[in-house]
Design goal:
Layout (H helix, E strand, L loop, with lengths): L4 E12 L6 E12 L2 E6 L6 H8 L7 E6 L2 E2 L5 H11 E4 L11 H11 L4 H14 L15 H13 L5 E5 L7 H15 L5 E5 L11 E6 L2 E7 L3
Parallel strand pairs: 3-8, 3-9, 6-7, 7-8
Antiparallel strand pairs: 1-2, 1-4, 4-5, 9-10
Length: 232
């Protein structure tokens, strides 16, 4: 029976701190992300969006509840297995880029393939093709400190997509990009989401790209307040 949902969250609670300084950031999230679609997660700063997608990606652990991705319950996996699952199936675009300063743009973009055991030469060739699509033809041999914020963002996007992940999770992917490049990035992400066993989750405040959403979930104060099909 085919999967209905790429991601399922049930009763997800996240607390930070302990004792009298314990703060609850997520308040029992129940959320199902459709397969074969691009889903936007929106809401005011500080409402828990980044915390939620970090738990979905296995970068943070939930205090309570469970997360199932591609029918695999990652909240029950050992840490080493979560890392392997993420490397094999997930692409994550960080808001702060998280590029390695000692690697060139093409080497940074190739990292996800190298982690999977692809040779560096092959990984760099595939990363180079993707960087070309993102308008980085003349900047592939530059280091992160030689790139603008928008150029670093493109490298981060290439790194997340180069290993052809089934799930892409992205935190403000177009924040540092002009409108044209932002639309090109969303078209790339849409191609990922169109697969029968694939999906894209985008956290964004950028209303220029809202037409690219198939579904929109709205968060407020650590809760999913609404979830709807996008009519834009």
């Amino acid at each position: 029976m085919p999967m209905e949902f790429a991601v399922e969250c049930k009763g997800v609670i996240k607390d930070f701190g302990t004792g009298s300084v314990r703060q609850r950031v997520l308040h029992g999230i129940d959320w199902q992300v459709p397969i074969g679609a691009t889903t936007f997660l929106v809401g005011p700063s500080g409402c828990g969006k980044t915390t939620l997608i970090s738990i979905i990606a296995g970068l943070l652990s939930a205090t309570e509840g469970y997360v199932r991705i591609l029918d695999q319950e990652i909240t029950k996996m050992r840490r080493s297995r979560v890392v392997r699952f993420r490397a094999d199936h997930l692409g994550y675009i960080f808001q702060q880029f998280n590029l390695l300063p000692s690697l060139t743009a093409v080497e940074n973009a190739a990292v996800s393939l190298v982690v999977q055991g692809v040779t560096l030469a092959t990984a760099k060739r595939q990363a180079s093709v993707l960087l070309d699509r993102l308008g980085m033809e003349s900047n592939k041999l530059k280091y992160p400190n030689q790139l603008s914020g928008g150029q670093q963002q493109r490298v981060a996007i290439a790194r997340a997509l180069v290993h052809n992940p089934k799930i892409v999770i992205s935190d403000e992917p177009t924040a540092s990009l002009d409108a044209e490049t932002g639309h090109e990035v969303m078209e790339l992400l849409g191609q990922v989401a169109s697969g029968a066993d694939r999906a894209v989750i985008v956290v964004t405040h950028d209303n220029r790209i809202f037409p690219f959403a198939d579904y929109i979930a709205t968060m407020s104060d650590g809760r999913i307040e609404s979830f709807r099909k996008n009519s834009a």
